[in-house]
Specification:
- By secondary structure, the chain is an all-alpha fold.
- It has 2 domains: 199 residues, no CATH class; 203 residues, no CATH class.
- The chain is built from 18 helices and 2 strands.
- Strand 1 and strand 2 form a beta hairpin.
- The longest helix has 31 residues.
- The N and C termini lie far apart (71 Å).
């Protein structure tokens, strides 16, 4: 029954989102596809997952309705005040960062990508110095991963890795503006992949990929409404570049999975899944990653064994800072795991919101998320502010990671936003200055 009902509700949600936002790509459609897909894969039961308990279904439905009501609050308010839909009006796009034709933007992406490359090379040199060679590093992937989790491999400069996300954000804008993918579109992502290979982790690859995707598509929508300049985009170029990026990310993620020695022979694996044990791309462990989180949420609610301080997951950065002042204990990097029948620990953002704030966490927070993100969505297309775009993209990241965890657990969610806020006015001044130099020479 659920295998039919879940896709049906998800499709209805996507259609509703198109009616509300005039575009297929929006935060409601993303949430419906991500959460609907997660539950659908879980209900396929290719692993012997337990049934989702009624309380978990209640939390899932409550969270979705709260998110939807937050969206509808803004749209209803706009309808009552007879405000036009921003994507129905056409006007001229004039932003300071494009005063020089995008030159300052181009060199900024290159600058931050080189910082990312420096971080990756430095980390590889540290690991080679510790283990002896690249081959030995790869052979000890599981050990390297544990050392990174415990924080025993220090960065050359703290917070320096977060600089690369400035490049990712700017590359999304630059690619949309230029109307085609180029080396600068993928250079920041390549440096992150090289860095992630030193962690033998995959979270930052997903983070950067979604950051680029959200920035690119949202800004592309803005450009499509410019009345004075035709911003065409090469479809063939987009297909080739997208294929390349998918191959890059999937290959790197699969290589990391194999290097860490992930087990593929889980208890209760179905015959269909057993046939995929040797599959390089879609293996039992991949199925586990894209389906298990709802099971963890259900088991967490069933056992009720966790005691979490107020906001300790959502605002982990604050607790981490307070621990350095010896005010609180250092928060765990990983959440508590559950056996479902495989040990796994991520249980969607609903688990962490409930652990942090109780029933208010899965009702008030999604409502506010839907409300604020919808207000920012309209605000961006009306004001064309890159600061609004920044906050919009990073709230989209919460939605994009909703199937896994509350993304605000990760320090780079905060640090990279802060760095982008600091750099945007510098970028604007550089572009204006570059234009004045060009005019002087001519």
């Amino acid at each position: 029954m659920s295998l039919v009902l879940i896709p049906f509700i998800s499709i209805l949600g996507v259609i509703l989102s198109k009616l509300l936002f005039r575009k297929w790509f929006n935060h409601l459609s993303i949430y419906c596809i991500i959460m609907g897909g997660l539950i659908f894969f879980y209900e396929l039961k290719l692993l012997s997952y337990p049934e989702i308990i009624p309380v978990a279904w209640f939390i899932i439905i409550l969270t979705f309705l709260a998110f939807l009501f937050g969206i509808m609050t803004v749209i209803s308010a706009r309808n009552l005040t007879s405000q036009n839909h921003p994507l129905e009006t056409r006007n001229s796009l004039s932003l300071p960062i494009f005063e020089d034709g995008g030159k300052a933007l181009k060199y900024s992406i290159l600058f931050f990508s080189l910082i990312g490359l420096f971080v990756a090379i430095h980390r590889w040199l540290v690991l080679i110095g510790k283990f002896g060679s690249i081959e030995d590093v790869l052979l000890n992937a599981a050990v390297v991963y544990r050392l990174n989790v415990r924080g025993e491999i220090k960065e050359f400069i703290p917070f320096l890795p977060s600089f690369i996300y400035v490049g990712v954000f700017l590359s999304g804008i630059y690619t949309a503006y230029k109307g085609r993918f180029s080396f600068l579109s993928v250079f920041p992502l390549i440096t992150i992949v090289l860095k992630e290979l030193t962690y033998f982790g995959r979270g930052e690859m997903l983070f950067s990929s979604l950051e680029f995707l959200f920035t690119f598509i949202l800004f592309r929508h803005l450009l499509s409404k410019d009345s004075f300049q035709r911003f065409k985009f090469s479809k063939s170029n987009a297909i080739i570049a997208t294929t390349f990026m998918l191959i890059l990310i999937i290959t790197a993620a699969s290589f990391i999975r194999i290097s860490r020695g992930s087990k593929e022979n889980y208890i209760g694996t179905s015959r269909t899944l057993k046939q995929m044990e040797e599959n390089f791309i879609f293996s039992p462990s991949v199925y586990l990653y894209i389906s298990s989180d709802i099971g963890v949420l259900s088991k967490y609610l069933e056992l009720e064994k966790e005691e979490t301080s107020f906001g300790k997951n959502t605002f982990r950065l604050v607790y981490d800072f307070l621990s350095k002042l010896h005010v609180t204990e250092k928060p765990d990097f990983f959440q508590k795991g559950y056996f479902i029948p495989v040990w796994t620990n991520t249980g969607t953002f609903m688990r962490e919101l409930h652990a942090d704030f109780g029933i208010a966490g899965v009702s008030i927070v999604p409502y506010l998320l839907g409300l604020i993100i919808t207000w920012l969505w309209f605000k961006f297309y009306e004001t064309k502010s890159l600061y609004v775009l920044l906050f919009l993209v990073y709230l989209y990241l919460i939605v994009g990671f909703s199937f896994l965890m509350m993304i605000t657990r990760l320090n780079q969610w905060f640090f990279s936003q802060f760095l982008i806020i600091l750099y945007l006015p510098i970028l604007e001044k550089l572009a204006i200055h570059q234009k004045s130099i060009t005019l002087t020479k001519s």
